[in-house]
Amino acid sequence: MEKLVYRTKQELGAAAATTAAEKIKEAIESRGQVNIIVATGTSQFETLKSLVGMSGIDWSKVTMFHLDEYIGLRMEHPASFRKYLKERFVDELESLKAVHFVNGDAEKVEEECLRLGEIIAAHPIDVALVGIGENGHLAFNDPPADFETEKAFIIVELGEKCRKQQLGEGWFGTLEQIPQRAISMSIRQIMKSACIIVSVPERRKAEAVKDTLEGEVTNMHPASILQRHPRCKIFLDEEAASLLL
Nearest 5 degrees, angle CA 151-CA 127-CA 120? Predict the structure, then answer.
């Protein structure tokens, strides 16, 4: 994993977006299309803001997947990741070839996981934009994460530390309002991505960053699995990198 540290989260976001844009254009040039994963959360604000402003990308050749969604949450809810992506990414672009949202309020969530799994199996991911949670989660794969499942999308239980992060970021009014389950892209599916770009700003992520980069690879620190990816770059600001040796 290649580590890059920037002074501010704005510089981090611009750098991560530049790298993503380069990889997206390379895939379009070589294959005529590109499949990407786009993450959500406050850590992605600057990266997505910069990416949608990049020139030279033919977005009509881009198919987008997203990582996770709360179960039982309507798209109109302020904390919905579909709402987040629609407002901050999809609606900012003239057109995308296809958008595959995770429908967390599907009547049968098991069938929704299977539906998404079939689609992504036919669309190998070229570029994945992801973040790391305060508890080291990757997507919504909280510790102890399932490193073994071959399913592309799974139903997961959200731990208290994960839910408190969502509360602290202002997505919900109380802890009780936060769903306890979600649909998440699995660890192995994320690791199948040809290129992974990780954006992690802020001091509150510093311990998780240290575990990810300098700790052992363990499902108790799910993002540590990224050490084993051959084409992964992690973009940090100085605060997020403050505990690194």
Answer: 30
- 22-131+141-199: CATH topology: Rossmann fold (3.40.50)
Judged on CB neighbours under 10 Å (0-12, 13-18, 19+), 19 is: buried
- pLDDT tens-digit series, residues 124-171: 999 999 999 999 999 999 999 999 999 999 999 998 888 888 888 888
Sketch the domain layout of the chain as residue ranges: 22-131+141-199
Mean pLDDT of 80-89: 95
How far is it, in rounded angstroms, from Cα 99 to Cα 221? 30
- Indicate the pTM of the whole model: 0.95
- pLDDT band at residue 51 under the 50/70/90 scheme: very high
Distance CA 159, CA 8 (A): 30
